[in-house]
Amino acid sequence: MSRPLIIGIPCDYRVVGLHPFHMVGEKYIAAIREATGALPLLIPVLNAPIAAAEILASVDGLLFTGSYSNVAPELYGGPAPRAGVLQDEHRDATTLPLMRAAIDAGLPSFCICRGFQELNVVLGGSLHQHLGEVPGRANHLEDKNATLDVQYGPAHDVRLTRGGVLAALLGRDRITVNSLHEQGIDRLAPALAAEAVADDGTVEAVSLPGAKGFLLGVQWHPEWRWSENPVSRALFQAFGDAVAAGAGR
């Protein structure tokens, strides 16, 4: 029997009680399984990272998820994080080399929230650590005291770049997205193209012109109740189709 399509999902590293755990939010796992039909494979972020080549040999695509942690600012030349801001050096050590290798290999990759920020850092961009404190920028954080339905509800519009990958995929020039991020792109990586921009100028989606395979990053969370949102359905459909096509080749 032929094996199923496999989409790898790098984990977050957390200490629960006295024990380390490798975790992925269920919403990402469910979206991959339900939207693409692929087998979600959780990739541990070990202290001695699994080699990127070993991972790429075992998967047909990669999903880089959101997280409560942030990319270590030393990786993009930013100032040290404030006290209490969650970091995840284990994830950084696995996902950044893995993302570079996936881009080089043309392996289909979908990058969400933290994954979107990782993509910008991998290709030489930088991040605002506290976006809402930047003059002229809005507060993009959710109300953590609200219900999840409210936190992940429609928050603001983004303008899609005319002639861009996202505009062509969705057939429109403006969409409404949720917003649950404190950090955001500061300096856009030179190789990336902005695919969507919020009204305050915050880049909310990117692509890589000339990429060897599917590569899209979004700052919002399409995985949340993905089947109820036509934009989310289109994004996961495109990713799943690219994974299937790549595996077929």
The CATH H-level superfamily is Class I glutamine amidotransferase (GATase) domain
Strand content: 15-25%
Quick one: biggest sheet? 9 strands, mixed
Shape: globular
CATH architecture: 3-Layer(aba) Sandwich
Alpha plus pi helix count: 7
Rounded to an integer, what's the Rg over CA atoms?
17 Å
**What share of the residues lie within helices?**
25-40%
Write down the overall mean pLDDT.
Answer: 97
CATH class: Alpha Beta
Structural class: alpha/beta
Structural commentary:
- By secondary structure, this protein is α/β, with parallel strands linked by helices.
- The protein has one domain: 3-Layer(aba) Sandwich (Rossmann fold).
- Helices cover 29% and strands 22% of the residues.
- The chain contains seven helices and 13 strands.
- The strands form three sheets. The chain has a nine-stranded mixed beta sheet, with helices on both faces. Strands 2-3 form a two-stranded antiparallel ribbon.
- α1 packs across α7 and α3 crosses α4.
- The model has no long low-confidence stretch (mean pLDDT 97).
Annotate the secondary structure layout.
Blueprint: E1 6-10, E2 12-16, E3 19-23, H1 26-36, E4 39-43, H2 52-56, E5 61-64, H3 89-105, E6 109-112, H4 114-122, E7 127-128, H5 148-151, E8 156-160, H6 165-170, E9 174-177, E10 184-185, E11 193-198, E12 203-207, E13 215-218, H7 230-248
Parallel strand pairs: 1-4, 1-5, 5-6, 6-13
Antiparallel strand pairs: 2-3, 7-10, 8-9, 8-11, 11-12, 12-13
Helix pairs in contact: 1-7, 3-4
